[in-house]
């Protein structure tokens, strides 16, 4: 029987969507971000525990989520915040301005599979300012295979933006939550070997030693 079918009957946390055995909500804490953060999530992504768009909404205080369906007819007026310049991260966009004020920026992040995100990006490219970030290195999003390099998860895209804008505290907070999200999802899938390898390259042991220990023994009642 496919693993996805088996997991449909698994009791899950309503917040992190992981099986209770691997719930990471005890480590959750929100942080204020001067940038207004919105996530445009594909309807198929809505129930995927691997979604880093959900992670962003759990972690970044006052961030918003908008459901994308072709038939729904979502428009820029449904998303844009008055007094903020709307940014859409796009490889064909312009570089981040050197004189940007984070408090005046709203970023719209697209959350879905690579194909879903590309299709959405084409349809909303006229909604705001297209911005191209210097996204380099290897993705730490070990939950989906990549056909080629240069692809990053939604949370990693936000991490690159935070780093570019010099928002070190927000970046550090989201980064460790992202690492925990990937690790717990690997464990929930039964990919213990990959999870251990991921952990060896992470700060998680230093930041959340007690939680990691609890995850090894804890069982829901």
Beta-strand content bin: 15-25%
Q: Would you list the SSEs in sequence order as H and E?
A: HEHEEEHEHHHHH
- Low-confidence runs (pLDDT<50, min 5 residues)? 1-7
Alpha-beta content class: alpha/beta
Largest sheet: 5 strands, parallel
Radius of gyration: 18 Å
- Tell me the strand order in the biggest sheet: 2-1-4-3-5
Count up the helices.
Answer: 8
* Outline: globular
What is the count of structural domains?
A: 1
Average of pLDDT: 91
- Can you count the beta strands? 5
Helix content: 25-40%
> How far apart are the first and last residues' alpha carbons, in Å?
25 Å
Secondary-structure blueprint of this entry?
Blueprint: H1 3-7, E1 36-42, H2 52-59, E2 64-68, E3 85-95, E4 105-111, H3 114-124, E5 129-132, H4 154-164, H5 168-188, H6 192-200, H7 204-207, H8 209-217
Parallel strand pairs: 1-2, 1-4, 3-4, 3-5
Keywords:
single chain, 221 residues, alpha/beta, five-stranded parallel sheet, 8 helices, 5 strands, globular, disordered N terminus
């Amino acid at each position: 029987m496919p693993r996805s079918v088996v997991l449909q009957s698994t009791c899950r946390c309503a917040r992190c969507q992981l099986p209770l055995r691997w719930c990471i909500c005890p480590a959750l804490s929100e942080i204020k971000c001067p940038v207004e953060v919105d996530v445009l999530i594909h309807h198929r992504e809505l129930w995927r525990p691997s979604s880093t768009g959900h992670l962003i909404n759990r972690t970044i205080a006052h961030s918003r989520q908008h459901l994308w369906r072709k038939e729904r007819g979502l428009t820029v007026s449904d998303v844009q915040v008055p007094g903020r310049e709307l940014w859409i991260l796009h490889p064909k966009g312009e570089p981040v301005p050197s004189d940007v004020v984070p408090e005046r920026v709203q970023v719209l992040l697209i959350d879905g599979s690579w194909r879903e995100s590309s299709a959405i990006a084409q349809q909303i490219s006229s909604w705001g300012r297209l911005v191209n970030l210097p996204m380099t290195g290897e993705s730490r999003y070990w939950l989906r295979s990549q056909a080629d390099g240069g692809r990053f998860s939604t949370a990693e895209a936000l991490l690159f933006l935070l780093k570019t804008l010099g928002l070190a505290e927000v970046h550090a907070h989201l980064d460790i939550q992202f690492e925990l999200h990937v690790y717990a999802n690997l464990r929930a899938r039964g990919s213990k070997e990959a999870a251990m390898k991921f952990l060896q390259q992470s700060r998680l042991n230093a930041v959340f030693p007690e939680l990691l220990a609890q995850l090894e023994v804890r069982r829901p009642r």
